[in-house]
Amino acid sequence: MQILQVEGLSKNFGGLAAVSGVDLQVESGEILGLIGPNGAGKTTLFNLISGTIAPNSGKVIFNNEVISGLKPHAICKKGLVRTFQSCKTFPGMSVYQNVLLGALFGSPGKISREQADVETREILEFTELAELSDVPAESLTLEKQKKVEVARALATKPKLLMLDEMMAGLNPTEVAESMELVRKIRDKGITVIMIEHVMKAIMNICERIIVLDHGKKIAEGTPEEISKNKTVIEIYLGE
């Protein structure tokens, strides 16, 4: 069953076509990788899907409902949520408070403070942040800050989670831990789309990969198919 369809999505900034006629489908329960050179349009595509910016043409269908034109908070409450390339935690607030905000203001229905507290603590355990719950987000390492952002997103009860370079800047051990967390998230029934330059992660945990270049989709397939695609090798992967 498809949870997301993107049809003919385009966005121009002045004379620059940042995203040009992109079509894609995402199956419920899969981990989909989105790769391509810097400037290929990956984050712009995330911005269009999540409602951060409006497309010039095309539409986004989530759970059989057209969501193009909705505000990000409305899209979040429908179950589609994203993280950001640069961490956007609330630095002066504790880990617990950051995640609690997601539960209180991002959940699809009304939630009591008591229930939000319970769900926040469950997510902190799930993401292995419980021991850091009282620590200000600004005091954390980059890896932990990224994990707080993921935890806050999970607190909104997403059906589809979009991760924008979750593993950028992490060491190999942290990358391995992050890969395991993504698998755990999918095993909870949450569909994942991830933009990533860490090829080890993309090739090992994604069932399918889409490649963008200059705003256009140039390839789509399994990790094995993408790793052998001549166009992708020339433009992005290298020999």
Describe what you observe in this structure:
The protein is an alpha/beta fold and 239 residues long. It has a domain at 1-79 and 191-239: P-loop containing nucleotide triphosphate hydrolases (Rossmann fold). The protein has nine helices and ten strands. The protein has helices at 42-50, 72-77, 95-106, 113-126, 142-154, 172-187, 199-205, 223-227, 230-237, and strands spanning 2-13, 16-27, 31-35, 57-62, 65-66, 80-82, 160-164, 191-195, 208-213, 216-221. A six-stranded mixed β-sheet has the order 6-7-8-3-9-10, sandwiched between helices. It has a four-stranded antiparallel β-sheet with strand order 2-1-4-5, with helices on one face. The longest helix is centred in the C-terminal third of the chain and has 16 residues, at 172-187. The relative contact order is 0.18. The mean pLDDT is 93.
Order of helices and strands: EEEHEEHEHHHEHEHEEHH
Largest sheet: 6 strands, mixed
Instruction: Output the CATH class name of the domain at 1-79 and 191-239.
Output: Alpha Beta
Number of strands: 10
Spatial strand sequence of the major β-sheet: 6-7-8-3-9-10
Helix content: 25-40%
Uncertain residue segments: none
Please state the CA-atom Rg, rounded to the nearest Å.
18 Å
Number of helices: 9
| CATH architecture level-2 label of the domain at 1-79 and 191-239 | 3-Layer(aba) Sandwich
Mean pLDDT: 93
How far is the N terminus from the C terminus? 36 Å
Q: Which percent band covers the strand fraction?
A: 25-35%
- Oligomeric organization of the protein chains: single chain
At CATH level 3, the topology of the domain at 1-79 and 191-239 is Rossmann fold
CATH superfamily of the domain at 1-79 and 191-239: P-loop containing nucleotide triphosphate hydrolases
| SS-derived structural category | alpha/beta
| Dominant shape | globular
